[in-house]
Amino acid sequence: MKKFLIPTMALMLAMSASAETYPYLSFQTVDGSVVSLKSSNLNLTIEDGKLVVQNDEGSNKFVLTDLARMFFSKSTETAITNLNTDVSSTLQVYATSGVFLGEFDSERSLRRSVPSGIYVVKTNGRTLKMAVK
User: What is the DSSP letter of 54?
Assistant: First the structure.
């Protein structure tokens, strides 16, 4: 009876286990910005201190010392790229770590003053996530 029961239980366990699919591989840099790429047909190589990521959509290069982490995700990382704010509104800008970076009188001055990355922006009683490229 044991010879039949143990293999049957093992087969049932193997059939019930399944891996989740994650369609995106995301890369987060030390400045907090996140880039998500489709994980299908993904090829990762390292050359000249850079991680080269290639898939059906093209290729990206990341300096290894700038990478904080990479992880699989079910959706792309998103952020607002245009705030559409009133001309007279003040923008309070924070890094994703919560550090206050300053106040800006326009989106244009904000984009000129901060490096590429993801930022939290408070304006007109709204809080938004903004990507600066």
Answer: E
Which pair of tokens denotes residue 50?
């850079």
34 vs 27: CA distance, rounded Å: 5
C-beta neighbour count of 75 within 10 angstroms: 10
**Residues 6 or more apart from 79 whose CB is under 8 A from it?**
118, 129, 130, 131
For every residue of 63-127, DSSP letters joined together read EGGGEEEEEEESS----BS-----TT--EEEEETTS-EEEEESSHHHHHHHS-SEEEEEEETTEE
pTM: 0.48
Distance CA(2)–CA(89), nearest Å, equals 75
The token pair that represents 51 in the structure block: 């991680």
Residue labelled with tokens 């890369």: 27
SS3 32: coil
Q: pLDDT (tens digit, 9 = 90+) per residue, 68-121?
A: 888 888 876 555 556 666 556 789 999 888 899 999 998 888 888 998 888 888
